[in-house]
Design goal:
single chain; alpha/beta; Rossmann fold; 7 strands
Length: about 220
């Protein structure tokens, strides 16, 4: 089943937040999902110990550089979707995970500095394509944007990425309190109360739209 790798060459881009939100949304839609938490800080393992994790979402954390490929391949045989999350770096573990992905999602914020980091991740991906002699589909996800303001710098970055031949998701992950609240309280966006986070329905709709974009990208490659 599809392996979706969330990648970034640096921390703080919103990679783990995006990966977890999508994994939970897919699980709540009825899919059997494996989440491979290969980040040494294991933020999703900590989230999973709180109340509210969907029963059909399994977190796999016993992963190392020399076992990541086998872990991914085994999970792909057992689950409808495999989400891979690792530390923000250009390590060999990241490279190995990319080599087994059906879709690599390169996560970046809408700033020139972060866009340059995204280019580093793309170069790592291209290296894996050469090493394993296979085309690895990828798409760029822009995170932490405003729901109301689209600055000129963001529009310029989008244009540059598209002109470079990259697929940029039409859905961006908006900066919302609800996404942080999920890590604080556990469970899913739909479990949050108005006291825990503002405008939860808009957050749910944003993630659902992103999940649909990801599924469409996967289907376009089959």
């Amino acid at each position: 089943m599809p392996v979706i790798d969330f990648a970034s060459s640096k921390g703080g881009a919103g990679k783990t937040t995006s990966a977890l939100l999508v994994a939970v949304d897919l699980a709540e839609s009825g899919a059997k999902v494996a989440y491979i938490d290969a980040d040494k800080n294991q933020p999703v393992v900590a989230w999973g110990k709180k109340v509210g994790k969907p029963d059909n979402l399994t977190i796999i954390s016993d992963v190392a550089e020399d076992t990541i490929i086998e872990t991914i391949e085994t999970a792909a045989q057992q689950y409808d979707f495999v989400i891979v999350d690792h530390e923000g770096s250009a390590s060999m573990m990241v490279a190995y995970a990319m080599s087994r992905a059906d879709l690599v999602i390169i996560v970046t914020q809408g700033s020139p500095l972060d866009a340059r980091e995204a280019v580093k991740t793309i170069r790592l991906l291209k290296g894996q394509e050469k090493a394993f002699n296979r085309s690895i589909p990828c798409a760029v996800l822009i995170t932490r944007t405003s729901a109301t303001i689209r600055p000129h710098t963001l529009r310029n970055i989008e244009s540059q990425l598209k002109e470079s031949g990259l697929n940029v998701f039409g859905t961006q992950l908006i900066e919302r309190d609800a996404y942080k609240a999920v890590f604080d309280f556990g469970g899913s966006l739909r479990d949050l109360t108005p006291k825990q986070a503002r405008n939860v329905p808009a957050a749910v709709a944003n993630v659902r739209a992103l999940s649909k974009d990801i599924i469409a990208a996967l289907k376009s490659e089959t």
